[in-house]
Amino acid sequence: MTQDALTPIPRKVSQAMLAFLLLGLSSCKSFKVDLQSPEPIKVDVNMRLDVYQYKGDEPEKPNEEQARYDEAQTRIRNRLAEIQTFKNNGLVGEDHRGLLFLREKPAGEWGDRVEKEVNEENEDRNLMIRHEAKASNRAMHEVQEEFWKQRTNRAFHGEWIEVAGDKPNTFKWVQSDGPREKPTADATGGNKPAAGTTQSAPGS
Fold this sequence. Notes:
single chain, 204 residues, alpha+beta, 4-stranded mixed β-sheet, two-stranded antiparallel sheet, elongated
């Protein structure tokens, strides 16, 4: 190694280099290290509970249920005359469940209309039966039996009704022997009681 290689760096040069290094370090930006954990995920507990508690078969509100009941009653009253025509022609009868039973379906559009009216009548009757069972805290079959007896007891003479059979838990179809005769049309187009009978109030 030569003597030139061991020659020390002049003092002025070393001071300039040191100043340059300090200036470079001071111009560098510092790195910020975030030691805090990220914001936790927020869960809407109320929304989760609402979804969990929802049921598709939740009972209706009392006012809505009563409104449906009243509407069913109105529809039944509005189709009374047509249902009576079906009974007079032997097409339908009152069964032991408190419902209409289609005994004979006529051909063509008339038969389709009879079937449609019977189905709609039974839908409304079932709605009323369920309502009465809930309101009185009774079993469905108890209310059905009550409806059955009410309707068969007020059937006109000759209408088809289902009655208790000869054996337990059986039923049979018979034609009612009263207590009322079928109304007959008078000259004005209205109804009048048959001879020997008295006219009852509608729905009695």
